Structure formats: C-alpha cells, structure tokens
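Teaching assistant here, posting this on the class forum so everyone can see the example we discussed in section. The complex has two components, and the goal was to see what a joint structure prediction looks like when all of them are supplied at once.
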Amino acid sequence: MKWEMVIGLETHVQLATRSKMFSGSPTAFGAPPNVQANAVDLALPGVLPVPNRQAVAQAIRFGLAVGAQINPRSWFERKNYFYPDLPKGYQISQYEEPVVKGGVVTFALEGVPHQVLLTRAHLEEDAGKSLHEDFHGRSGIDLNRAGTPLLEIVTEPVMRSAAEAVAYARTLHQLVTWIGICDGNMQEGSFRCDANVSVRPQGQVAFGTRCEIKNLNSFRFLEQAILHEFERQVELLESGGKVVQETRLYDPERDETRSMRSKEDAQDYRYFPDPDLPPLCIDEAWIEQERAALPELPAALAQRLQTRFGLSVYDAGLLTASREWANYFLTLMAEGTLDPKLCANWMTGELAATLKRTGREVQDSSVSAPQLAALLRRIQDGTLSGKMAREVFEIVWQEGGEVDALIAARGLSQVSDSGVLEKLIDELLAAHPAQVEEFRAGKDKVFGFFVGRAMKASEGRANPQQLNELLRRKLSGS
Amino acid sequence: MNLDDTSLRMLCAGLRERTFSSEELTQAYLQRIEQYNTRLGCFITVDPERSLSQARAADIRLARGEGGPLLGIPVAHKDIFCTEGWLTTCGSRMLSNFVAPYDAHVIQRFKEAGSVILGKTNMDEFAMGSSNETSFYGPVHNPWQLTHVPGGSSGGSAAAVAARLAPLATATDTGGSIRQPAAFCGISGLKPTYGRVSRYGMIAFASSLDQGGLMAPSAADLAWSLGTLTGFDERDATSVARPEEDFGAQLEHSLEGLRIGLPRQYFGSGIAPGVAQAVEEALRVYESRGARLVEVDLPHSELSVPVYYVLAPAEASSNLSRYDGVRYGWRASQYGDLNEMIARSRAEGFGAEVKLRILTGAYVLSQGYYDAYYLQAQRVRRLIQQDFLQAFEQCDVLMGPTTPSTAFRFGDKGSDPVQMYLSDIFTIGVNLAGLPGMSIPVGFDGQGLPVGLQLIGPHFSEARLLAVAHGYQQATDWHARVPGRGEQA
C-alpha cells in the first residue's frame, strides 16, 4: 500500500520585544538565572498582568504579512496546570479567539509554487526552565524566560512531505525575521517547531491518527523527525498496529521520537478567559499604523528585483533571503551604475562564501556595500580583472581601506594601455617564431600558450579581454 | 483626645494645629489595640516600633507645613494588601511566613499620603467567608457582642473601626466583604465601582469581582479619604482612568427630590424583623428629607448567589494555583516527588473553606461542565447587570437591607455552607454588576446588634452615594454609637 504523509506545523516564534508579554522585565537571552524575573514573573501574591502593546503590534504585523484577518476583538485565556517552572499555575494564552485568523505562506519548492494555509496565530507567554543538572538530585528553576512573549503560528494539515514542511518553516523563518518580529535564533529557542504528523493510505480522504512531535529546534531536526515519524507510523500500521494519539519528543542524538504523554494522560487545562485582562481590541487605525510600518515583503521584493533589475528567479530568491542581505544589494543598486547581474554574482559568490567561512552575517561584513560597490566599479571600467578584484576583496576584508587607494598603492591596476600590451606581444612573438608558425598552420591550441606567457610577462595585470584581441590580431598577421 | 468621639476631619485638624502629634495619636491607638486585641482578634500583625517611626516621619512633614487629609493619620490595613516588609498572610497558613517584598497600590497611595500603618487586620482565609471564622489566625469577635461574628471577610477591619481601634481601615469586597461586616459591626463601608481602585498588590480571590474599599464610622470619613485610594494604575489592566474627584467637597448635597429605588426582591420574606424595622425607619428619614421612594424590579436577583458561587470559585481555583510551595509560602516538610510536594503543601497550607471553593471552581471549569456552569453563569451575570441598569432608569440610588439578619453567633452557620452563602444574597449582585455599594448603620435589632442599610449607585457614582449616606447621618447618630467591646456594662 502507498502511504501519504499529512503534516501540520505549530511554530512558537519568540517576539522581539524589549520586555515580557505581561510584565516589564527584559527578555534578553543568557542572563544569570532569575535576574530577569520581577514580582509579576515570580507570580508573587497580588501581582497582575498587563499586555505588552509591542507584542500585539508585532502579531498584527505578522497577520498583515500573511494576508490574515486581524481579529478586532480577541481575548486571553488561562491554561491551568501545575509545574514548578510555571509560576502562576497557569499560562496566559489565547484559546477561543486568537489575535490572527487565517493567512497564507507562499514559497517555491523545486520551482513549484506552494501555499500553506494558516489556521491562526495567537499570543501567549513562555514558561520558565527547570534545570535538573548541577543540583545534586534537586531541581533548579530559572524564571528568566517565564513570561517571554510568543506568537504561536498554526498551519492547517496541508503539507504532504518533509521537504514541504521544511520549506514552509524556512519561509516562515525568513518572514518573521524580515518583518523584525523575531531574531530567528533557533539555538536559543527563538523559533521552535512542533510537527503534527499522520499517515493515511493514498487516496483516502479521512485523516489518520496524528502524533505531535516536540523539540524541533533546527530545520534538519524537523526534516529528520518527520521522516522518522512517518516510517514509524507506517511500520506500525503495516504490522497491524494502531497509531496512538500522543505527544512525542524528538531525540536528535538517537534520531528517534519517543512518547512523552498519550491522549489519555492529557490534562484538562480548564481554559477560561483571564479575568485580569480585558478583551484585546484592535481598531482599524492601529492596523493601518502597523501596515505602514511593514517593510516590503520578501516575495514582493524578489518580484521587483526580477522586473526592475532583470535578475533570475533564482538570484532574486537568494538576494531576498534576509532583509539585511536585500538591503546590501539595494545599496549596490543605489549607485546607479553597477551591473545588477555582476552585483548578484559577487554577493552570492565571493561575499557569501567569505561570510560563511568567517561565520558572520551580512550586517557584520568586513566589506561594506559601498566598499564592494567601489570594487565592482573597477571591474566594470576594466581597471581590475576578476582575479585581481578577488585579491582586493580579500585585502579589504582583512585590513579594511579604500578600494581605489589600495589599487593605486599596490599597483594592482590592470594593464589596459594598448601600446604597452602591443610591445609586450611583439616581443613574445619574436621570441617564439616556431609557435607562431604552428598557430598560423591552424593549430589553435597554441593561442593559450601565448596568453599564458603574456600574463606571466605582465605579472598577471594584462587586461585579458584586450590581450586576447591584440594577440589574435597579431598572430593572424594583420 | 477622645478617640470614641472623633472624625478624620477632627483628627486632621488636631494634627495640623499641633493639638497632638501623629506619634501621640498613633500611640493612643496602639494602646487601645494592646488593650482590646486579645479579646477581639482584629489584628494579625501589629508592629508598634514601625508604626511609631512612620508617625514621627509624618510629624516632620506636618512640622514643615505639609498637608493632605491623611497625613499622620493611623490606618489599619486588611491583611490582603501586600505591605513591604510586613507579614502579609491573607488569613492563611499558606502565607503565614510571607513577608511582602513590595507595596500594593493601595498601600503605596496611603504611604504617599503620609498615613501611618497601624497594623494588618484579620480576615477570612483568602477573603473566603462571611463570618471571619475561616481565618488561620482565629476568629474576630463582634465588639457589640463577643459571642457573635463580625461578618466577613473584612471582619478584622470592621471590628477594629467599630471598636475605635482605628479611625479608618482598608478592606476588600468580592461578594459583600466590606458591606456585610460593616453592617454587622455598625459602621460605614464603601465598596467602590469595579476599576476605581487598583487591584495591584491586593491578593486576588476572584479577579472580576474583587475591589478594594474603605471602612470608617461615618460617610464623611469615607469621603475624606476616598481620594487617596482611587486613581488609575497602569499595573492593573482593569483599572479605569477617570478625572480626579474631590469626594469631600461633594458631600453636602440636598436629599430633596432624590429618587430611591426599592428592589422588590430585597424586601421579601426571610428578612429578620429587627432588620426590616430599622430599614423602614431609615427610609422614612429619607422621605422626611424630601426623597421619593420608588419600587423597582431586579428580576434575576435570586440567581446572583448561584452565579456568584460558580464564577468566584472558578476564578479563585486558578488565582490560588500559584501557591504551590515552590517559591514562597508554606511548603510541606515531607514529600516524595514534585507532585507530592505541591499537593501536600496545598493540603497543609489551605483551610477547609478555601479547598471547598478551589474544588468547586476546578469542577465548573472542567471539560464537559464548563458550558453548563461557567458559561451559563456568565450569561446570567449579564442579565443581572442589565437588571441594575434598567432599575437606574427609574431611580438615582437603590436601597435595602445589607443583610437579611444581623450578626449571627459563632458556629451558627458553620455546618451548612449554603446557609452561609445565602447571607450574601443582597450584596453579591453589586459585585456581579461592578457597581459601587455602601452600608451604613441605621439602628439596632432587639438583641442590640447593629442593622445596616445598603446603598447602591450607578457606576462611578461614589460621590453621590456618599452624599446620600451623609445626608442620613446628618439627621441621625447611629454611626456615632460605640460598642461595649466586651467590657462589663
């Protein structure tokens, strides 16, 4: 039997606010335990939550970016359960009425356009952390993360392969970082996916029983976990077993999922509207204000790069991977004189490779956009060959400095003076009459020999294009 | 200085004119507390040194010529308000070791006004009770008759004010916890409009119903101090921003033409004769001063008790989840694992009434019951709110007995919680509708126990309510009567 995979994703996006969802504590990562937890986060008797306006604004921006409905009146509910790192004994979340309803995330997978429908996106607060190591059999609680604002983005069960799920997650990641509502740091847990996976015989309409896989904090783990879970469920069904609805935890070290809790152990969270918080009302004016603050979205910009600058779909996609990356390209274009294709090639080639090698992001590049622009200008006007430009790039990366000054100081400019080149070629032909004869007899390969010698004689500075032309003319005896 | 026969206005004048210092005044009240508290049980915590040092600080401000209605005035605070550096127990073993690291908004406002913290008053555990019998710190005795309850949950504050152990006390009201003990103890109590007083730092019982307020002998005293309590607080999302009001300045207001609505449902059977008679006489006083009586209807009134006893426990069951023994409060000494630690700490830390309400609340919120109980109760709550709004189309203020009976004996209603809950029947609707309500003393029953008249107004009509109460107190002296405090007659 052929089996079809059905996937829905729930993504917890940590919002890039300065303070927490319902308290004034800072949200920065990595502080010593419990220093970023105030009376509200500790749930002292008598404290009250106050919603973070910035977090709501970011949720609105997300909703607009995916073409969703911004709920004019949503509310917060309490999800009640006991756990030591949940100080209030309940999590404030949205259950009945989320702030964002619907929406679509669009991307191309192997050139084929895909659309993933969103069910909803809702605001909630994160829990703290239980630390079970280092306390000699006791547990520690760190409440720095308690109350951190999260936007939980839920898709419909519309994905049919692990590759599609990963492409969706990557696109979502690109989008939330692009619009500035998340720092996107997956190691620090700023972007975490849970995958709901079920299988069904190909052609069957009804869904199979699903399992939720948690703890997927990299795209690779997401893919592996889905593939693994698919195999597990298929094996189970083919051997006459049944899939039990449960929550499973992905263990990347063993590449397996294991059961956390089954539906039978599922707690009754006793959701009810939080009486400390009035309904969250969002009017048109607020929505318009956020719409105005929204940058041009990656898909729209990619389209513009194709039509305005004649870039390929592929290049436009690469250049809109992040807002910083796109801004770098747009800065080059702002020069007005540079060839878009040349710029795209340099960014996706030399620049991308060097960033990757040095582990940096484009915003921390040692070669700034204006510096690269100066360099590319010298390629365009023939001062530098591609090879020389890469040398200059490396020097600027290592030592900094102004491109034109460097070229002058190190004598790196290309020899394009035809008089100099002609003299050089004349000497060369005179020194190798046998090879000249061979070429004239039709042995075209000898041409390369002369190019090599000429380059060596010019210490690599001969303008290759000009050299080729002159050489061919002289060899042909004209 | 005669503490039995004074008012906040007089105390304030005495301080300003240096007739006595805040230190002397505070010392005088502390002596009374020392003398009577063992018998009455009004206070859980008294800290004379700290109080006197606050009084001395107030004296310095007074000497500098600073003013303000409460500068140097000693005030008792219900032990539900977090008070920095003070034990704040909420009447529970759960918080019997909890020294608050911060001030509630209410405490902060009183501190800024320069008032002196006289002590923290006894209360029903987590404000759950109508008799002050559920306190971990033992009962409070009604200063009119020590064999009787003072009412609850703000029983300590009410008894302290009645016995003149404090000229003013803070209190909270979730279903009548200010008005009912005020009625039982023969004092004036005000529960402001929901949202008027910040709940920040006020330990939550039922968040959508809880409201901080005041108790004092007279409406004039309440008007004198209400401005200190009210005002917008950005730390409470349910706090309402309103223009500042001078409640004292609006006190003198003629009763001529006042339309008093008498809800049919508040004058039915089941009202003790002594209560009915005193209330009737009070209404006659109003009539004689030019007020008109109109009969009005609150058709869903009888549903207020069941609605309240679904919603309040539901909210409480969640609000009290934070008491898990992990970060502060009572932690069981013996436990096997995490779950057992939480379960045992709660089993040991909470008393029976609190547990009953947590269980009730968890039940009505659980899957399969939520719609039938919680949602249904929310729907009826809206009907009750509408009843009041419609009634206020025909009248300016509603009046009726605060409670069906006067203070009852200890243990009288202990065996049947429903009997106890029914004693809140007239007060609960006000909380469900978020309205301001008052109770003022209007006489005594045959046993010599005080009777309270309840006044209910539209949202944010506190100034009007206080003026209406003050008008009555200009014509009568019930509010000036002082109980025997258990002294032999």
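For the discussion questions: The two ends of chain A are 74 Å apart (CA to CA). The longest strand of chain A covers residues 112-125. Think about how each of these relates to the inputs above.
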